[in-house]
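pasting for the record
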Amino acid sequence: MSVDSSAITIEEIADVRLAAMPHIGPYPQIGNTFCKLRPATPGMTMYALYYDDPDSTPPDQLRSEACYELPERDEPCEGAHVVTINGGKYAVYRHTGHYMHLNAAWGNFMQILANSENGSRPGPCFEKYVDDCTVTPVETLRTDLYAPIQ
């Protein structure tokens, strides 16, 4: 699977408040942590934050967080804490299909960014899950990949 560089867009986003539950270990296993999240309001937008480079960090030491969007008035569910995705400029790629193909999509996306004029900036990369995986067929699931850029 390859990411077409013309499919990458640039977005300016505002801060996003999230309820986050930490996950340590291989990124593809974050689904186990998502199973523990219990948003007070069904249908909240889900996110995954990724803090480490999987090419230079041992899999058992990778840090990530399973998250859901948290309105200002709400408190996070048990076991979660509040984090904020800092607003700013992000490169964005929309992946359509099964989550098992996200690792390859990330690899291609990051390779294209490394060869672009958009320099990276500090902050986690993240996934925003456009569709609810409990009701959307896996072949049509949409996941937006975000990487902070200058």
